[in-house]
Every structure is written in C-alpha cells, then in structure tokens.
Amino acid sequence: MKSLHPWTRWLLFSKAKIIDAISKLLHLFTLESDHISWNYFKVLIVNTKYITKFVNIANSCINLGHWLSHFKKSMLIIIQKPNKPLYNTSKIFQPIVLLNMLGKLIEKAISEIFQIHSIASNFIYPNQLGDIKQCSIINIGIYLTYLIYIEWINGLHMNILAFNIAQFFPSLNHQLLLKILDKAEFDLKITTVFSSYFINRQTQYL
After folding, report:
1. Are 81 and 94 in contact (CB under 8 A)?
2. Residue 54: which pLDDT band, with cuts at 50, 70 and 90?
3. For 140-167, what is each residue's pLDDT tens digit?
4. Is 87 exposed, middle or buried (0-12, 13-18, 19+ CB in 10 A)?
5. Domain range summary for the chain, segments of one domain joined by +
6. Which among 44, 131, 146, 176 is most buried, taking Cβ atoms within 10 Å?
7. What SS3 state is found at 53?
8. Are 33 and 99 within 8 A, CB to CB?
9. For 24-72, where are the E strands, in sequence order?
10. What is the pLDDT of residues 32-47, one digit of tens each?
C-alpha cells in the first residue's frame, strides 16, 4: 500500500484537531450564513458521534480533492461603521461575509496546520509579520519599540514607513497560489482541493 505524502498526513484531521479548532472560537457570537453560532458547536463537541462526522467530512474533502458546494455559498451583509457624521460614501460602510459554519471551521483548522508546517519547513519568509504565530501585531509593536529605543540611546531619530496593500486577498491570483502550493511540495490532493475551493462560489447579498 502506498504511503501518504507527509503533507497529506499532516492535513488529515483528527478529533483532537477539530476540538482544538472549535475551542479557539467559542468566544465568538457571530451567526454565520446557516444561522448557527460557535456556541452551538460547544454543545456538539461533547458528543463523540458528531465529532466523528466532522472529522469524516473534513478528511473526505482532502482525500477526494473536493470542496463541497454547500461550503462555497456565502452571504454578504453591508453594515454602517459606527459614530460617523454622514453616511454618504462607500467607505463609511463595512461589508461582512458570512460563511457556512462547518466549512469555516474546516478552513480554520487547515490554516492552522498549514502555518505550523510551513514555518517548520522554513517555507515562510522569516520577516513575514502579521497573522503568523509569534509574529502578531503585538510582536510587531514590541519589536518597533525596541528599535526606536535603541536609536534614541544612540542619539538618533527613526522614521517608519508603513503601507497597506488594498484588496490583496480578493485580487490574489488563484493559479499563482496553486503553483506556490506545488513548490512547497504539498501533495497533489491538497492542490486539487484548493482548485475546487476557488471555483463556482456563490454570494447572496442582503
């Protein structure tokens, strides 16, 4: 029997991984597109039968290289940003995208596993900051504070240039991402499931 590619083994789910992913989100009260909150999953994780079903669904997505069409449906809600004197420009409104709860749970678990092993294989650039373990905005603030104090001690001044790439993720080239996964030596199943993830997505506007 052919052994699994190492990356595939890491991505396969277990009850522990699902429970860990749920436990990190229990403080959230947002209702998703299926009108279920994370607290609903808090009740379900005490039942082994339900956890087993979650694991089977997640692993089936990986093994079959297929992202369920039910997970591709999202709901877009546009809300007003609070405490604005006028609401006459688009910047005053904030779009919120609601996803299927179980699909979102699997996405978060995949993201966690991806990051851990991408860092372990030195595939992520060491100076990448933000949304990386031990490289959060708090870590950035501490590091900048350290650099500023060092310059002050030396009687120097420091200038900081910061910029934001607007609409980075919506404009991300899907084919490029798939090539990156291939270069990172992910198993073909992983690339296939992401190919399925990107196509035929549907958004309902409210």
Report:
1. yes
2. confident
3. 788 888 888 999 999 988 888 777 666 6
4. exposed
5. 6-72+99-205
6. 44
7. helix
8. yes
9. none
10. 555 666 777 777 777 8
DSSP 41: H
In the three-class reduction of DSSP (H, G, I as helix; E, B as strand; rest coil), residue 188 is classed as helix
Q: Hey, is 99 helix, strand or coil?
A: coil
Residue 166 DSSP label: T
Burial of 45 (0-12, 13-18, 19+ CB in 10 A): middle
Contact 38, 28 (CB under 8 A): yes
29, 83 contact by CB (below 8 A): no
Pair 53, 120: CB distance under 8 Å? no
Map tokens 């080239």 to a residue. 173
- How does DSSP classify residue 29? -
pTM of structure: 0.71
